[in-house]
Amino acid sequence: MIRDKYGDIVATGVQYTKNGETSIVHARKEVIVSAGTFHSPKILELSGIGDADLLRSLGIDVAIDNLHVGENLQAHPYCTMAFEQEGPFTKSGLNATAQLPLPSYLMSSHGKSELDKVFKQSCERSELGKTTAAFAKAHETFVHSVMSSPTEAAALYYSFPGFAMLEGEGGMADIPPGSKN
Given a cut of 90, is residue 178 above it in pLDDT? Predict the structure, then answer.
Protein backbone atom coordinates (compact mmCIF):
# COMPACT_ATOMS: atom_id res chain seq x y z
CA MET A 1 0.00 0.00 0.00
CA ILE A 2 1.20 3.47 -0.83
CA ARG A 3 -0.15 7.00 -0.46
CA ASP A 4 -1.35 8.76 -3.60
CA LYS A 5 -0.84 12.47 -4.34
CA TYR A 6 -3.84 13.32 -2.13
CA GLY A 7 -2.49 11.39 0.84
CA ASP A 8 -4.99 8.53 0.53
CA ILE A 9 -3.74 4.97 0.96
CA VAL A 10 -3.94 2.88 -2.21
CA ALA A 11 -3.39 -0.87 -2.54
CA THR A 12 -0.97 -1.55 -5.40
CA GLY A 13 -0.46 -5.28 -5.07
CA VAL A 14 -0.18 -8.25 -2.76
CA GLN A 15 2.77 -9.40 -0.67
CA TYR A 16 2.84 -13.09 0.20
CA THR A 17 5.23 -15.65 1.64
CA LYS A 18 5.66 -19.13 0.15
CA ASN A 19 8.25 -21.64 1.37
CA GLY A 20 9.84 -18.91 3.48
CA GLU A 21 10.33 -16.58 0.50
CA THR A 22 8.45 -13.26 0.39
CA SER A 23 7.24 -12.01 -2.98
CA ILE A 24 5.14 -9.12 -4.25
CA VAL A 25 2.65 -9.26 -7.11
CA HIS A 26 1.74 -5.82 -8.47
CA ALA A 27 -1.78 -5.16 -9.73
CA ARG A 28 -2.21 -3.76 -13.25
CA LYS A 29 -5.38 -1.85 -12.41
CA GLU A 30 -6.77 -2.47 -8.94
CA VAL A 31 -6.65 -4.87 -6.01
CA ILE A 32 -9.89 -6.73 -5.27
CA VAL A 33 -10.15 -8.57 -1.96
CA SER A 34 -12.35 -11.60 -2.57
CA ALA A 35 -11.56 -14.27 -0.02
CA GLY A 36 -15.00 -14.97 1.43
CA THR A 37 -16.95 -13.89 4.47
CA PHE A 38 -14.25 -14.59 7.03
CA HIS A 39 -10.99 -14.32 5.12
CA SER A 40 -11.67 -11.00 3.34
CA PRO A 41 -11.88 -9.05 6.63
CA LYS A 42 -8.94 -11.09 7.95
CA ILE A 43 -6.80 -10.00 4.98
CA LEU A 44 -7.87 -6.38 5.44
CA GLU A 45 -7.11 -6.46 9.17
CA LEU A 46 -3.73 -8.14 8.68
CA SER A 47 -3.01 -5.37 6.16
CA GLY A 48 -3.77 -2.72 8.78
CA ILE A 49 -7.31 -1.87 7.71
CA GLY A 50 -9.87 -2.16 10.51
CA ASP A 51 -10.65 -1.06 14.05
CA ALA A 52 -7.52 0.82 15.14
CA ASP A 53 -7.84 -0.21 18.80
CA LEU A 54 -8.16 -3.89 17.88
CA LEU A 55 -5.30 -3.77 15.38
CA ARG A 56 -2.96 -2.03 17.83
CA SER A 57 -3.83 -4.56 20.56
CA LEU A 58 -2.73 -7.30 18.13
CA GLY A 59 0.50 -5.53 17.21
CA ILE A 60 -0.66 -4.63 13.68
CA ASP A 61 0.28 -1.22 12.29
CA VAL A 62 -2.84 0.80 11.46
CA ALA A 63 -3.13 1.97 7.85
CA ILE A 64 -6.83 2.83 7.83
CA ASP A 65 -9.05 3.07 10.92
CA ASN A 66 -12.39 1.56 9.89
CA LEU A 67 -14.64 0.24 12.68
CA HIS A 68 -16.80 -1.77 10.27
CA VAL A 69 -14.22 -4.25 8.95
CA GLY A 70 -15.19 -7.71 10.16
CA GLU A 71 -17.82 -6.39 12.56
CA ASN A 72 -21.20 -7.11 10.98
CA LEU A 73 -21.09 -10.88 10.84
CA GLN A 74 -24.46 -12.20 11.94
CA ALA A 75 -25.95 -15.57 12.69
CA HIS A 76 -28.23 -16.64 9.88
CA PRO A 77 -31.04 -18.82 11.23
CA TYR A 78 -31.32 -22.03 9.29
CA CYS A 79 -34.54 -24.02 9.45
CA THR A 80 -34.80 -27.42 7.83
CA MET A 81 -37.54 -29.85 6.94
CA ALA A 82 -36.57 -33.42 6.16
CA PHE A 83 -38.42 -35.91 4.03
CA GLU A 84 -37.52 -39.10 2.19
CA GLN A 85 -37.10 -38.89 -1.56
CA GLU A 86 -36.59 -41.45 -4.30
CA GLY A 87 -35.80 -41.07 -7.96
CA PRO A 88 -33.58 -38.78 -10.02
CA PHE A 89 -33.66 -35.84 -7.61
CA THR A 90 -31.83 -37.82 -4.92
CA LYS A 91 -28.54 -37.70 -6.82
CA SER A 92 -28.47 -34.10 -8.05
CA GLY A 93 -27.14 -30.96 -6.46
CA LEU A 94 -29.27 -27.94 -5.65
CA ASN A 95 -32.81 -28.78 -6.78
CA ALA A 96 -34.89 -25.67 -6.24
CA THR A 97 -34.25 -22.11 -5.20
CA ALA A 98 -36.68 -19.26 -4.65
CA GLN A 99 -36.16 -15.81 -3.21
CA LEU A 100 -39.25 -14.94 -1.24
CA PRO A 101 -40.74 -11.65 -0.06
CA LEU A 102 -42.56 -11.75 3.26
CA PRO A 103 -46.10 -13.12 3.08
CA SER A 104 -48.96 -10.86 2.09
CA TYR A 105 -50.07 -10.82 5.75
CA LEU A 106 -47.28 -8.38 6.48
CA MET A 107 -48.56 -6.11 3.74
CA SER A 108 -51.90 -5.75 5.58
CA SER A 109 -52.36 -2.90 8.06
CA HIS A 110 -52.15 -5.35 11.00
CA GLY A 111 -49.05 -6.99 9.54
CA LYS A 112 -47.34 -3.64 8.95
CA SER A 113 -48.15 -2.66 12.53
CA GLU A 114 -46.54 -5.88 13.81
CA LEU A 115 -43.46 -5.33 11.63
CA ASP A 116 -43.14 -1.75 12.91
CA LYS A 117 -43.25 -3.06 16.51
CA VAL A 118 -40.42 -5.48 15.75
CA PHE A 119 -38.32 -2.71 14.21
CA LYS A 120 -39.02 -0.35 17.11
CA GLN A 121 -37.97 -3.00 19.64
CA SER A 122 -34.81 -3.89 17.72
CA CYS A 123 -33.82 -0.22 17.38
CA GLU A 124 -34.28 0.37 21.11
CA ARG A 125 -31.78 -2.36 21.96
CA SER A 126 -28.15 -1.38 21.75
CA GLU A 127 -26.88 -4.36 19.73
CA LEU A 128 -25.31 -2.21 17.05
CA GLY A 129 -21.74 -2.95 18.03
CA LYS A 130 -19.02 -0.59 16.89
CA THR A 131 -20.76 1.61 14.36
CA THR A 132 -21.73 5.20 13.79
CA ALA A 133 -25.23 6.58 14.25
CA ALA A 134 -25.37 7.45 10.53
CA PHE A 135 -24.47 3.90 9.49
CA ALA A 136 -26.95 2.40 11.97
CA LYS A 137 -29.74 4.61 10.59
CA ALA A 138 -28.86 3.76 6.97
CA HIS A 139 -28.80 0.04 7.83
CA GLU A 140 -32.15 0.29 9.65
CA THR A 141 -33.72 2.10 6.68
CA PHE A 142 -32.40 -0.50 4.22
CA VAL A 143 -33.56 -3.51 6.26
CA HIS A 144 -36.97 -1.91 6.83
CA SER A 145 -37.34 -1.28 3.08
CA VAL A 146 -36.54 -4.92 2.24
CA MET A 147 -38.72 -6.40 4.99
CA SER A 148 -41.74 -4.24 4.11
CA SER A 149 -41.47 -4.64 0.33
CA PRO A 150 -43.94 -6.95 -1.42
CA THR A 151 -41.31 -7.74 -4.08
CA GLU A 152 -37.87 -7.72 -2.38
CA ALA A 153 -36.55 -11.08 -1.21
CA ALA A 154 -36.52 -11.18 2.59
CA ALA A 155 -36.01 -14.95 2.72
CA LEU A 156 -34.47 -17.66 0.59
CA TYR A 157 -35.91 -21.12 0.03
CA TYR A 158 -33.79 -23.90 -1.37
CA SER A 159 -33.85 -27.65 -1.36
CA PHE A 160 -30.99 -30.07 -1.74
CA PRO A 161 -30.37 -33.70 -0.90
CA GLY A 162 -28.63 -34.26 2.37
CA PHE A 163 -28.70 -36.12 5.64
CA ALA A 164 -27.83 -35.17 9.20
CA MET A 165 -28.69 -36.91 12.43
CA LEU A 166 -27.97 -35.35 15.81
CA GLU A 167 -27.40 -37.13 19.10
CA GLY A 168 -26.77 -36.26 22.71
CA GLU A 169 -25.72 -32.66 23.10
CA GLY A 170 -26.12 -31.74 19.45
CA GLY A 171 -23.23 -33.77 18.06
CA MET A 172 -23.51 -35.54 14.75
CA ALA A 173 -24.57 -39.18 14.88
CA ASP A 174 -23.41 -41.89 12.49
CA ILE A 175 -25.53 -42.50 9.43
CA PRO A 176 -27.75 -45.49 10.16
CA PRO A 177 -27.35 -48.56 7.94
CA GLY A 178 -29.74 -48.74 5.02
CA SER A 179 -29.99 -49.45 1.32
CA LYS A 180 -27.29 -48.24 -1.08
CA ASN A 181 -29.72 -46.33 -3.34
Answer: no
